[in-house]
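re: ur msg from earlier - yeah i can do the magnesium ion complex, just paste it... oh wait u already did. ok heres what im feeding in:
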Amino acid sequence: MRILKFGGTSVGSPENIQKVIAVVKERAQKENVAVVVSAVGGITNKLLHAGHLAAQKDTTYSAIFQEIKDIHLTYTKALTQSGETLLHVQNLMNDLEALLQGIFLIHELSPKTIDKLTSFGERASSMMITAAFLEQNISAQHKDSRDLILTDASHTKAIVHTEQTHTAIQNYFKDTNVPITVLPGFIARSETGDTSTLGRGGSDFTAAILAAALQVDALEIWTDVSGMYSANPKLVKQAQPIRHISYHEAMELSHFGAKVLYPPTIAPVMQENIPLYIKNTFDPEAIGTCISNEVNGKNTPIKGISHINDVALLTLEGAGMIGVSGTSKRLFETLSSLAINVILITQASSEHSICIGVAQGDVQRAKDAIENTFAYEISKHQIDPVFIEKELAIIALVGEKMKSHQGISGKMFSTLGKNNINIRAIAQGASEKNISAVIASKDVKKALNSLHERFFEDQHQQLNLFIMGVGNVGGRLMAQIKQQQEYLLEHLKLNLRVIGISNR
Ligand code: ASP
Ligand code: MG
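and the outut:
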């Protein structure tokens, strides 16, 4: 068995849904598949927007509701002739409208209600997609994930009760023989019986939970890019998809803003050693990225260069900190009491200062709270008022093989230095999978490009090659060139670029 997950863009229009069907159909010829789907692209945001307007007594929420309804009814009609399905989707939209009216009346939107509200996106998409399979006489069934995935009651980002969930999933699939089961991603059921959700982007996680419970051969996450890239291709033109990457590397990269994968997705499949493939719905032939235990030794020690924007640094400094135990405990406790996430930490061995990176939106709250915690020491001038710096970003080199290579951080910092990029702070874990540097936001693009050039492009020597074909071989020739390109890149680290094709 295999689990396939399709994201919002993949199910973003009736035409795209046909592409999804083609991929699934092909897979389902060989083995049974479970298909996890996101909401239609943009719907979750629209649901939240409508909910917030309604809670503020703003009647324009109904215009957004109308948009959501129109999208779903139009798609349903385009995908199926089934009057029953249309009725189901209509009923769903009626329920949504009633919920929004309720929010409007009580003027309130609790996390529990947010989950109820956002669940409509995946409930509707999964229903429409199941009908689209049936319309083409492909045997498929729908299963509501809320019957299978059980969570605690921490709404909007619930914690999964793994054991109960696994048992429910195993019991359900044990008795089913339908080749294709379509399930909504993202949504689950809380221990109090309410609809819960697994956090924004959580459909990936739904798919990983199913994969782990059923110990499947592979999990495929289908999205709108051809895998994880060596750097964000929007900022680095030369970025390439990474063919092989380890779970740990993928985790480092996905935490670092490579939006391809929801970070919690990796843990369940890593535990069961299930390979995870990232594939492109719009270019199914592209190889994509394989995430597995197998670290490909032939590749460079660096797998990717990642970055996080909108970071601020916060420094706690003072002679009164030296040799005093408990300072960092008090600092981190303060942040944790405000649920502020710490992105990066550095402390020099002089213990004279601790510097931490947080999201820029959190920094003022963090500063106020820390100064409150250390009010006594500050009043006695043992510790200085907290110093903050904004408009920063973190760039990180990621690769599991870095630890067996010397000189990587040297190269990294000399490259940044040569390009006049000032480094504000540095962190490297002892595991050496990630070297992070804090730089000014305005330098991110330059930093990514110069590091990419240094670590990826230099090693790929250029080779000019003429391939000649006889007869009408255009399509086949291109496919062969693509294969050669991948072979050369992987085995010889040669970057084959097609410079021109002439037709004589
Ligand atoms: N629809 C949800 C979101 O937009 C979950 C997902 O797409 O993964 O966050
Ligand atoms: Mg998503």
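cool cool. The chain has a mean pLDDT of 91. ping me if u need the other ligands too
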